[in-house]
Amino acid sequence: MATEEELFANIDALLQEEPQLPPPAERARLREAAGITQARLAAALKTTTQTVKNYENGRSEPKPPRLEAYQRLLKGWAAKYPAHQALAAAPAPAVLAEPVPKTFTRPAAPEAPEAETAAPVVAPAVAAAPGRPAARPAASSRRPAGKKAAKPAVDLRFPHGPLAVLDGDGSAYGVDGIVLDCPATTIPELVEWTLRESGLGAPKLNRHGKDGDPLIVLTAAAAVKLGLPEQLEDRRGLRLPEDHPVVKQVLKARWQLTQRGFGPWARIYRKAQGRERQCVQLAILPWDALDSRAWPGVAEMEPADVARVLGVYAQRVITPRGSTAVSGLELMTALRPPTRPVRDEETGNWVSGPNPGSLGTEPMDPAPPEGQPEHPAVFHSGWKGGFLHEEAYQWVRPVDLLTDEECTLPYAVGLDLNTAFLAAAARLVVGLSAPDHFHAPNFNPKIPGSWLVDLSHVELDPRLPSPFTPTGERPTGPAWYQTHTVAYAQELGYNVAPIEAYLRRETGAYLDPWHDRLKTAYVDTLADLGVTKDLSDAEFLAAIERHKDVDPAMAAVLSAIKATVKGGIGKLFENPQGKGYQDGDPWPAMQRPTWRPDIRAAVISKARVNMHRKMLNMAKLTGLYPLAVLSDCVVYPAPSPSPLDFLPYAESGKPIPGAFRLGPTPGLAKLEGVQSMLWAVDLMEQGLNPARHIKGGDAVLDEGE
């Protein structure tokens, strides 16, 4: 039993701890009960009115000696104006004729059958937890005023959001304008502070998934302060040497680095303790962590603006884990975790089991035609039967197929489909199990797989590209095609007779939650830039023309979302890299479950077919044929610089379904560029694609980083 001295010592220790303040809402109530304004209280505390507001909404907490003075004032007010008196003085509610409905913040959404999103804990205001630094408001940044994104519900485990941008003075800029004080002077101290005190992180996107690890973005000044070089000398390996002092510090502190080492996107971790993960993601701005192609201008922004851009992206897409391509792939797994808890029938315990609809935990060898010659399973089998070649369009109409009437039109107008590959991922059924080999099977458009078919007999107008090849040239004999390509030949009325096929028995719409989340992010971000669904076509074109100037930060978010789509799909089929690679050897990318060239092929096949279907309907409705197609951009001869003068509209003024339509939704078109028709013909005579020059050359779907 404890002695009297021990008990008194414990009580004295409690008394010596920092004083605890009442909740933020109670602070505001006490001040209002005393009849004191926020400005008057600020003057008494020798601070600003905004700081008092932050005290009362939970955005920040006072520090000594202001903390003790503020607590003394609140205690005095609490003695004079106890909470029960305020309740007793409240007027009785009026009797209503109808019952009052329960409070709600938004309409109930229908339950998603595939992806289940974990609902974070909601709190009206967030106060700094004991041991965590208080947040303070950021100084006003030089960004233009823009429409604010709807704030997500606050998770009490991560009161300060998913990430922070650390500057050289120790200020860590978070989302919604908060600023934390970070005392770390080394990378290990930064990791410890992030995990123990920062309050950073993100709730899981699926109930069977994992919480998002906190992200710390380092400015150039912060990187130097923490002992990192201003520039990364190893531009090929993109990592610090193993004998660098910072790497030694990390390992000495018993932290680990992933196989990527300490590079622009370094991950520092320890093995999880129970359910609690111990991992911090770093992004180092002076080492080009934010590629200007995906994040235009972001690396040069003020820290608070960088935090705003990345914070909106994290809220709408995912906390960045690397390049946008890496983040796109990580989002797939976050929304479709490979495992879930299942009960062991023998022991009754909960164990990890496969999650239906996911890609599982083990890599899967492709069917021989779905891989590439250097893949170990293909290389060592001696396969000589050809390969699937489902790629995006790169086609130019031969100049001798231009009509005199087309050549007299003064303009070449480029139309770009909004995130065409994202639209193709919608409700796309893909294979989830290993492929099975079949000889002379009957074609079934509902079964995903690869089919060896001769489509050389399909006759189409030569002014349109062939829908079966990325070059737009007519097939010359049997070749391997993905299901959507073969199904389109059947849709056009031609008989298909597969010679062979590699098909998958277990199927599912794996990309559905990925598509839905990215589509919502894309549409919401466009709306923040003034491009909304309720605009007329003329208003839409005007809004698209100026949207990048409305708010550069949100324009950067939009660019990153588009790069996430493109890079994420490309990452499904990542080739071996490095000078020392030998054919037949495994490479890192192919050893992950998300290395799935068949899924990438399905997306691109469907996108190319969708593009051809629109061009065919366009020709039927208007008599117009494209000059060139590059990926998701198609160029038409036109009488004016506006697509409104050649797109098909009904007498009512509404666009005719089936052809190209304008709008902000993925799969609909926007004006990409205008040039003179003579310019386009000149490029075509040189064998160049006008669409590549109109789009700036970034339309080809690659495999990301």
Describe the biggest sheet?
A: 8 strands, mixed
**Helix-residue proportion:** 25-40%
Low-confidence stretches: 87-127, 140-149
| Sheet with the most strands: spatial strand order | 1-4-3-2-5-8-7-6
How big is the Rg? 30 Å
- Percentage of residues in strands: 5-15%
Number of helices: 21
Derived structural class: alpha+beta
Number of strands: 21
Query: What is the average per-residue confidence, as pLDDT, rounded to a whole number?
Result: 87
Report, as a whole number of angstroms, the end-to-end distance.
Answer: 64 Å
Overall 3D form: globular
Q: What would your notes on this structure say?
A:
This protein has 705 residues and is α+β, with helices and mostly antiparallel strands. It has an 8-stranded mixed beta sheet. Strands 11-19-20-12-21 form a 5-stranded antiparallel beta sheet. A hairpin with a 2-residue loop joins strand 7 and strand 8 (276-284). The longest helix has 26 residues, at 597-622. It starts with a helix and ends in a 10-residue tail after the last helix. The relative contact order is 0.10.
